[in-house]
Amino acid sequence: MANPVRITLVLALILGGLGAYVYFVDLPQSQEALQQTQEERRLIPFDDRAISHLTMKTREEEIILMRDDKNRWHITQPIIAPADSREVRKILRALTIGKIQRVIQQEGEDKDQDDDQYGLTPPHMILTITAGGTSEMIDLGNRAPLSSTLYARKHSDNIIILTTLNPLTFANKSLHTFRKKEILSFDTAQAEKFQIDRGDETLILIRQPGAHGLSPNWSFRSPMKGPADRTTVGLLLRDLEGLQAQGFVDSQSEKEELFKKLGAPTVRATVHARNRDHTVSFFQSPDVQDTYAMTKNENPLYRIAPDIVAGLTKDIFKLRDKRLLGMEKQELAILAVKTPAESYTLVHQSGEWVIEDDISQILNQDVVRLFVSRVVDLPAEFRVAKEETTLGRYGLDSPTVEIRATDMRGQERGRLLLGKSRKGLVYATGAGLPGVHQARSLILTQIPSRHQILADSSSR
Questions:
Q1: Is 354 helix (H, G, I), strand (E, B) or coil?
Q2: Same-domain status, 147 and 211
Q3: How many CB atoms neighbour CB 60 within 10 A?
Q4: Within this chain, do residues 296 and 338 fall inside the same structural domain, yes or no?
Q5: Distance (Å, rounded) from C-alpha 145 to C-alpha 376?
Q6: Most buried of 132, 152, 173, 276, CB within 10 angstroms?
Q7: The pTM is what?
Q8: Are residues 205 and 300 in the same domain?
Q9: What are the beta bridge partners of residue 55?
């Protein structure tokens, strides 16, 4: 009878040997085979970050792209111009993650049918990809039936393959696709000065410093001084930052011929950001259908959408801060209110509002703060007169409501006068905006009485 201990020992040795074989021989070989299979199924063996040159040749044109030492792409043929790096990266990404789904025809095999059925005689596009001194050439053919894949030919292996490339990635690519279309290169958040030159008028706006850098507030320095409408100015700057070319006029002779029809610039914008001026001139002419922009003489003349010019040529009233009172909430120390029924003065002290002639009265702070916000932020809707003249015709010589504001230093800087009402609007003047304007007459119903601002008024 066999010794059980010996049998167990023999089985353990056999099992250990099998385990060692699997671990040291079979598993590494399987991993190597898997890696080799995966490598063989890749369309090109390049990392997209290592690719330095890309040539795309179609039946209409040949485009050569090159990456510089700062990782920027440039077009070197048929023109020399900056390239749209995002468009180039789309192509490179597609190629480097692309796979060979199936080999259709190996090198040396008899052609059962002509290459024309795969769209390879001639191909729709010939790609030449270069990385580290090594190049791969690939012909792209037809879309495969019932799938978003492409037939292709790899020149290095001389095989026809079915790839996982999406035909839409390579369809309708032209020189215009790969041209850099951004006209200006600045960050709106870093803009410090904004100048608009339009004929004989120059607008200069300065961005205000804040506690931790630049604030979103802009102020006019010319042709007058005063706050600007930060929303309108911010939108204009973003439009300039995102300005895109829809077409290009490259040759000097074409530009000169076009300038004869365009004449002088309609408007010129300059943004100062990070110690650098970014200037663009815009051209619109009744003799020319399109709108154009130019940054430097040596750069192309860019065809653009016309909307930006309309924004830059707005009436200066549209660019101004249209709030009438002329003070910010955090600046207010005293707000004197006078209506046909009564008058009272609110004083801001220790973070709360009190009535000046009876500081023992407890006020409803929510009601007061809402009223103060409405007064401070009341905007003019329309301008009636540039100067405060003939106030009697607007009921402003004896105003319906008079509100005056004093700052923390005791200086009266804020003023709001409301006169006659007409069709939902009330005539108004204010320290924040010169001239006579119309504001929404709803403000007349939003001025609380002395009784309504008391804390216990709701129970009376």
A1: strand
A2: no
A3: 7
A4: no
A5: 67
A6: 152
A7: 0.78
A8: yes
A9: 64, 128
